Amino acid sequence: MGTFGSIHHIDITVRDPQRALEFYDFVLPLMGFRRIEDADEGPLWAGAQVEVGLQTARADSTAAHDRRSPGLHHLAFTAPSREAVDELYAKLLDAKVPIFDPPADYPEYAPGYYAVFFADPDDIKLEYVFTPEWPV
Fold first, then answer.
1. Residue 115 is part of which domain span?
2. Is 27 helix (H, G, I), strand (E, B) or coil?
């Protein structure tokens, strides 16, 4: 039996599978994920309680990702500390990953909420966040 009230896996649809694979192979291990055996549909990484997979978009799909359309707005990953958020940010800058918002406090979200927001190759908004009270 799995853990109820948790997410088992998330699949992200990508336009350029090789470019996305290189990006996620770089960034996910920095956030504590490890590459596991690929599924028929695409590559997989395992975290403590969730898996992340990539799937290739339809060949006729040319539309850019729009966070304000129905679907995924952004995906947030849990950081173990504020320092981990800062360390990831520095590595993202070195790798020239587009940054939406550098590390900052967001007390309007929760006490001690500290996060960086950045983009994947398909402009999907990703977040690495530390909250001292997590899980609630």
1. 9-58+72-130
2. helix
Amino acid at site 99: I
For 32-77, what is each residue's pLDDT tens digit? 999 999 988 899 999 999 999 999 988 777 777 777 776 788 999 9
Q: Are strands 51-56 and 74-78 parallel, antiparallel or unpaired?
A: unpaired
Nearest CA among 136, 91, 80 for reference residue 118: 91
Q: Whole-model pTM? A: 0.89
Q: What are the pLDDT digits (tens) for 78-102?
A: 999 999 999 999 999 999 999 999 9
Q: CATH number, domain at 107?
A: 3.10.180.10
- Cis peptide bond prior to 17, omega within 30° of 0: no
Cβ neighbours around 81 below 10 Å, total: 11
Please count the structural domains in the chain: 1
What amino acid occupies position 131?
Answer: T
DSSP string, 43-107: EEEE-SS-EEEEEEPPTT--PPP-TTSSS--EEEEE-SSHHHHHHHHHHHHHTT--EEEEEEE-T
Q: Which residues pair with 127 in a beta bridge?
A: 76, 117
